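Final report, results section. Input specification for complex C-07:
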Amino acid sequence: MSSDKQTLLEIYRTMVTVRRFETMAGEYFAAGQIPGFIHLSIGQEGSSVGVCSCLRKDDYVVTTHRGHGHMIAKGADLKRMTAELFGKKTGYCKGKGGSMHIADFSIGILGANGVVAGGLPIITGAGLSIKLRKTDQVAVAFFGDGAANRGPVHEAMNMAAIWKLPVLFVCENNQYASTTPMHYACSAGDLYTRAAAYDMPGEKINGNDVLAVREATASAVARARAGEGPTFLENVTYRLKGHYEGDPQKYRTTEEIEIWRQKDPIEHFGRMLAQKKYLTKKHAAQIREAVQAELSEALAFAQNSPFPEPGDAMADLYSNP
Amino acid sequence: MSSDKQTLLEIYRTMVTVRRFETMAGEYFAAGQIPGFIHLSIGQEGSSVGVCSCLRKDDYVVTTHRGHGHMIAKGADLKRMTAELFGKKTGYCKGKGGSMHIADFSIGILGANGVVAGGLPIITGAGLSIKLRKTDQVAVAFFGDGAANRGPVHEAMNMAAIWKLPVLFVCENNQYASTTPMHYACSAGDLYTRAAAYDMPGEKINGNDVLAVREATASAVARARAGEGPTFLENVTYRLKGHYEGDPQKYRTTEEIEIWRQKDPIEHFGRMLAQKKYLTKKHAAQIREAVQAELSEALAFAQNSPFPEPGDAMADLYSNP
Amino acid sequence: MSERILTCSAALAEALHEEMRRDESIFILGEDLVAHGGVFGQFKGIPEAFPGRIIDSPISETGIAGCGVGAAMTGMRPFIDFHFSDFLTCGMDELCNQAAKIRYMSGGQVKLPMVVWCPDGAGLRAAAQHSQSLEAWFVHTPGLKVVVPSEPADVKGLIKAAIWDDNPVMFFQHKKLFAKEGPVPEEEYVIELGRAAVKKEGRDVSLLCYGAAYYLCLEAASTLREDAIDAEIVDLRTLKPLDMDTVARSIRKTHRAVIVHEACLTGGFGAELAARIQDELFDELDAPVKRVGAKDVPIPFSPSMEDFVLPSVADVLEAARAVTYR
Amino acid sequence: MSERILTCSAALAEALHEEMRRDESIFILGEDLVAHGGVFGQFKGIPEAFPGRIIDSPISETGIAGCGVGAAMTGMRPFIDFHFSDFLTCGMDELCNQAAKIRYMSGGQVKLPMVVWCPDGAGLRAAAQHSQSLEAWFVHTPGLKVVVPSEPADVKGLIKAAIWDDNPVMFFQHKKLFAKEGPVPEEEYVIELGRAAVKKEGRDVSLLCYGAAYYLCLEAASTLREDAIDAEIVDLRTLKPLDMDTVARSIRKTHRAVIVHEACLTGGFGAELAARIQDELFDELDAPVKRVGAKDVPIPFSPSMEDFVLPSVADVLEAARAVTYR
Ligand SMILES: Cc1ncc(C[n+]2csc(CCOP(=O)(O)OP(=O)(O)O)c2C)c(N)n1
Ligand SMILES: Cc1ncc(C[n+]2csc(CCOP(=O)(O)OP(=O)(O)O)c2C)c(N)n1
Ligand SMILES: [Mg+2]
Ligand SMILES: [Mg+2]
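Structure output:
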C-alpha cells in the first residue's frame, strides 16, 4: 500500500469531495429540490475514504442509508449520484431508488440499504461468491453502531468466519443510532469485541484518522485476499449533522458536537499533510475549487436532467417477465 | 441452595424420570402410537434437571423441540405430557401442539418451540415483564448449539444485557445441530464466549455433571434475582439418540457415541450418590420402579384418553373473537 | 357528544395517555421513542407522563417483537412500535409463528394481549423499503387481528379496543395521515373491532375501503355526485375480524362494489373481499367487483413515478364508472 | 417422448444433476444437506457428484437468504434450500425487501437469478410451525415469482426454468409429495414459468388448483364423473406469472370455477384468482367462483383435527356440486 504524496493528496481530495457533496445535498434538500429524506455523513469521511482507498474497482461494497461517502470514495459518478438524489431519470437508479438505494454495480457497489443491517447477509453472500468463483476480490460491508445490534449481523459474521470468506465488516461507530446513544444499546462499550465470538480479528480504530483507517483496512484486505478470512473494524467517529436532515437532535448537546468538530477528520488530515509539506494553503484552495467545479457540473447535470415519465415506474422489475 | 441428601435424591429421581420418559416415548413412537416426529434428550438430563432444580414454580422457562426433559424437570404432569405426545384431548395442549409445542403456563413453561431459537426473544420479553412488574422471578431459555447461530439469540442477549434483565441463557451444547457438528458451525470452538460481546458473564460447564450445572445455575439465578442481569451458561453435553427418532445418523460414528455413553450423566451422578452412601443399589432399583409405575400410569392415562373431536380444531385460536 | 378537532397522532397519544393511566400493565417498546416522542410525534407527552413505561430498544425488530410476545404471556399488555411497517419483515417469525400461534398450539392456555403498531403507506418519497402496505400478509395469518383506521376518531376508538383485546392485534396507521385532522368525541368511547362504518350513504355503488384509501373515496364520491352517481362509502376499519354484514347490507342496496386500498393489487386484501362478495352476494351483483390498488411494483422514489404507482382518485372514479355504467 | 416413473424427489435431484453439470455457477446452500442428501433425500447424489457446490449452513435462515441475494448479484446462481417453508418467516426481509426489490430500486442494473426452494404443506402431524403453505405472501410481493408444482414431471421442468430465470423464484414443493411417483420424460425439457396445464379436459366445471391440491381435484373429478359432472382440471403450476389465458379459456367453456389450495382460505391465493375471474369473466360465470382451502386456524397436531382442518376431496366435491347444480 503506497502512501506517497500523490496518493495522500488523492485521499484528501476525495474527503473534500464527500464533504462538499454532503453539504450540497443538505442545501438542496433544505431548498426542497431533493425529495424524501437524506442522511449525511459529514464528519465520517475518515472512515469512508480510508476504507475505500484500499479497495479495487472490482471489490464489492454494501453501504447504508448514510452511504454517499462510501459511494464517492469507491469511485461513483457524481453526476449520476446527484441526479438520483434529485429523482431524475439520469440518476444511477433512474430515479427509482433515491439516496437510500443508490447502487453502482459497475464499480462493485451492491447498494445502499433502507433496512438497517440489510447489507450484511448480502455481503457474506458476495464473499461466498468470491470464494466459489476463486477470484481474489474482497467484499466490504459498512454498517453503523446501531446496526450492530441486529441479528442478521451476527449470522453474517458467523457464516463469513466459518467459511473464511474475504469479507470486511466495517462498523462505523458514530456514537448514535438515530436518537439512541451507542452506550445505551451496547453494554460492553465496544463493538469490535463482538468479533471474538466468531474467532474473527476485531480492531478499534480512530475513524477520524484516515491513515489509521487505511492502515487497518489494508491489513484486513490483505488477510482477506490471502484467504485468511474476515475482519471486523470498528471505526470510531461522529456524525456532525443530525440523523436525517431536519433532525431536532434533542438527544445530544451542542457542546458534545463542538468537541467532535475539533476532531474533524478532514482538518486533521489537512494539517498532517501541511506538516509533511505535501499541501500548501494554496493547493488546498485549488482542490476545494476543483471539487466545487466538479460538483457544480454534477448539480447542473442533475438539475437539467428530466424527471422520469410516470410510466417508467413499470420498467425494471423483472429481468425477464 | 441446599444439597442435602433428600434434595440430591430428588434430583436423581427426576433425572431417571426424564430418561425413562424419553425411552418410553421412543418406544411408542416406533410403535406408531405417537404421530409426527419427536426429539429425545437422552444423555442431556444433567443439564435439564440441574438447571430446573434451581428454579421456583413461578420462574419462567422456554424450551425447544427437545424439551421433554425441561418440562419434567420444571414439574410438568406426566399424564398430560404423555397424552399430548399421543395427540389426545387430555394432553397439555388438547392435542393441538404435540411434542414440539408442549407448554404449561401454570408452572411457568412458556412453551417448547418448533422454530429453533424461537424462544429467545420471548424469554427476554418475560424478563422485561418481570422487571416491569417488579417481582423477583427469573426467566430461563434453553437452546442448542445450533440455535446459538441464529440472529434472534443475539438480539435477545443484547437486550437482556442492556436492561439487566433476570434472564438465564442456557445453551445446551450437545455437539450437533441435526447433522451439523458444533465445530463446523462455530469457529471459536466455544459458545459461552459469545456472552462477552454483551458484557454478560458466560461460563462453560460440564453439562453431564448435574451438580456442576446446579451450582452454576444457582449463582446465575442469584445474580438475576438480585437485579444484576443475565448470565450465559454453556452446558456441554451430548445427545445419545439421533436428532429425531429415525435419524440415520451418518454424521457421527458409533465409537463417538460410545465415548459419551461412558459419561452418562445419570450413571455418573448415581455413582457419586453411592459413594456418598446416599443411594444403595436397592434404593436405586426402588426409584426406578416407582418412576416406572408413575410412567405406566401416565401411559395408561394417555392411551385411555379420547382423541379430540375433529371440530375441536376450531377452538382456542382467539381469546375473544 | 361534544367533539374537538384532533390529528391522528394526537388521537393516538390521547388514547395511550388515558389507557396507560388506567392500567399499569400497558407499556410501549420500540426504537427511538423517548427523545422525540416517537418519529411521528405519536407518543407526545408519554415519556414525561409515564417514565419507564415507554422504552427505547436497540435496533432489533426481531427482539422487540419477541419481547412483546414474552411480556404479553406474562401479565403485561405490550404496545410494540414497529417504526415502519416495512420492518415487519424482520419480526415475521415472532408475529406469525409465535404470537399468532402460541395460544392455539397450547390448547388455549394463555392470552396474548399485544398491539403491534405500524406506521405504513407511501407518498413520502421514501422509496421501496419505507412505503409498503403489508396488511394482507397478516390477514392470511390465523391468530392475528388486523386494524387499519382512517380518521382520528377511529384511531382513538380502535386503538383502545386493540389495547384491551386479549389477542395480538396488528394496527396500521398511514404515515401521511398522522397530521390529518378530524373531530374526536370528548367522551370516553371504544370502537369494537370488527365493525365497519358507513361513512357516506349512497345508492349506486359501494366504495369499500380502509386507511388512506378512505380519503380517495371521499374525494371520488363528491366528483361522482356530479355524474349523478350516488356512492356509498364503507370504511372497513378492521380487516380481521371483517364486518361482512355491513358490506353485504351496502351491496344489497347498491349492487355494485369497488374496493380501494393502497397496497399493491395482486394478492392484496381486496382480493379476499372481492372473492367473498362474489361468492356470498353473487345474485346481488349487477357488475363485477372492481379493485383499485397500487400497481404491482415496489414503490419508486421519484415523485412522478410514485404518484403513478399509487391508487388515485381517478382510478376510483374509473372503477366506479365502469361498474355503474355497466 | 419416452418416459420413466420417478418420484418428485428424484425428479428434482435429476434436474439439479443435469443443470449443475451444465453450469458451474449453480450451487446449493442450506442446512443439513450434505450428510443425508437433504432432509427429504431431495439432493441425493449431489454431495458426491458436486463436492463444494452443496454447502451446509449454520442455522441462520436470515443469513442463508441474504447469502443467496449477495451471490446472485455477483455472478452465481444460488439455489437456496429453506428446510421448511415455515422458516421463511426468518428470511422475509432478505426475500421481500432485498431480493424482490434490489433490481427495481437500482433501476434495473442487476439480475438476481436465485431459487428459493421450500418444502411446504401439512399432513405429516408436524403441527403449526412445520406445516404451512405461505405462497400467498410472496404473490403479494412484486419482484418475486412463485412456482408450486404437483407432479414429478412438472417439478423437473419447472425447477429448470426457475434455475435459469434471472429473477428470484420462490419454489414450493409439498412435503407429502416427495415420494409421489409419476412419468417423467427421458428427454431434455423445460417448462416455461407462467404456463398452466389442463390436466384433464371437462365441460362442466373448472377445478383450478396447484401443488398438493391437484391430487384432491384428480380424485374429486373421478367421483364427479359418477354424478355426470365433467370436471376440467387446470393445474396452475406457477402463481406468478399467472397463466390467466388458460384459466379464461377453461371458464369460457365451463362457466363455473372452483379454486382449490391447501393454504388457509382467508387471504390465500384463491382470493386473488377468484377476484380476477369474477372481474375479467363476469359475464361468463353461471355461478360464483368457489374457493376450497384449509380452515382459518394454525395446523393442529392431532391427526383427526389436522385432517379436519385441511381441504378434502369432500370439500372439492361439495364446491363443485354447489356451482354445477346452481
Ligand atoms: C431494520 C430497520 N430498523 C429501523 C430502521 C430505522 N432507522 C434508520 S437509520 C436508523 C439508525 C441507524 O443507526 P446506525 O446503524 O448507528 O447508523 P447511523 O445512522 O448512525 O449511520 C434507524 C433506527 C431501519 N431503517 N431499518
Ligand atoms: C429456524 C429453524 N431452522 C431450522 C429448523 C430445523 N431444525 C430443527 S432442530 C434443528 C437442529 C437444532 O440444533 P440445536 O439447536 O443444537 O438443538 P438440538 O437439536 O441439538 O437439541 C434444526 C436445524 C427449525 N426447526 N427452525
Ligand atoms: Mg450510528
Ligand atoms: Mg445441538
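Chain D has two domains: 3-185, 197-323. The two ends of chain D are 42 Å apart (CA to CA). This concludes the modelling results for the funded period.
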